[in-house]
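Researcher: Please predict.
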Amino acid sequence: MSGEIIGSVTLEFADPALLDHVNDPTERDISAAARAGETLFLSCDETAGIECLRPVGAGRWGAHRHVNLGDFFALPDGPGGEMDIEGLETVETAEGTWLWIVGSHALKRRKPKRDEHTASDALRRMGKLKRDPNRYFLGRVPLVRSSDGGLMPAAADGSRRAASLPLDADESVLVEMLAGDPLLAPFMELPSKENGFDIEGIAATAERVWLGLRGPVIRGHAVVVELALRPGDDAILRFGEPAPGQGYALHLLPAHGLGLRDLRRSGEDILCLTGPTLDAAGPAHVLRWKGALGTQGSGVVAEEALEELIAFPMQADGDKAEGLARWPEGGTDAWLVVHDDPVARRLDKAARTLEADIVRLTGT
């Protein structure tokens, strides 16, 4: 291993009472990160929007602005419906910079409320699965220069337009396509955190997208779904064919029983942040998938194509590494790591701040 924690950054958030469609403290539920220039983009998995931070001092990022994706898309569950955004990626093209966004596409099991339900009521509640329509989102928005010099999501920028896969309250074209795959089919009706289908990371180029799955983990292998996507004139993304005869390719990574929590491009490689599939404490690592962008078609990735860069200390009380973003201030090999369910030392509840780690991943 060649990685190490080399520092930290303080992220400052606004009072949720001042933000539209935000009910809970954002800093406790960060699920993804990406950066373009002097803007850091974060997602809180309890909302339907993007959190945008700018540098406000040495080692501090704030000036928090919340952008609701309901302003750009006709979300099937409305602008207040939870999207469970689990992956963000910024991509620079000849046209300009884009922000890719993906929801978990996952079913969820109802939680028992122990102070409200009897044992039998709690059991009945846990027997119910819920489908939140806004979770089935995959799209991109153009980033435009704001008055303060940062980049902000926009509905349109000249010929560039926000676009997504078709949005429907009752079905998902991505889930429908993958449900026919013999490897994935048995897991499509299982909920998240129970080895069900659950997207938790995204890497992208101009028209290629890689989706990292927290689940399922298949015989110890983590799953990456590769798509080719192209926009139409109607702001709808459509599938191309990364593999002959089908609109997707599957890559199975020997990740030693762990699922994927984030993906990030690094040259021709993809960095894979791994963690437990179940809702339990466990190890987390960053692996380098060498030559990922040159991989053609579906297949099982060879052991020698994966290199472990860092292993994070296991925490029994949360602190789940959930997102990676390149961090130039720390050097050419530096990355920001953000955490969901952060431990107490990372949070200042009065100041509404979250401490994120800076790690060095040599050779990235």
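Model: The first helix runs from residue 119 to 126.
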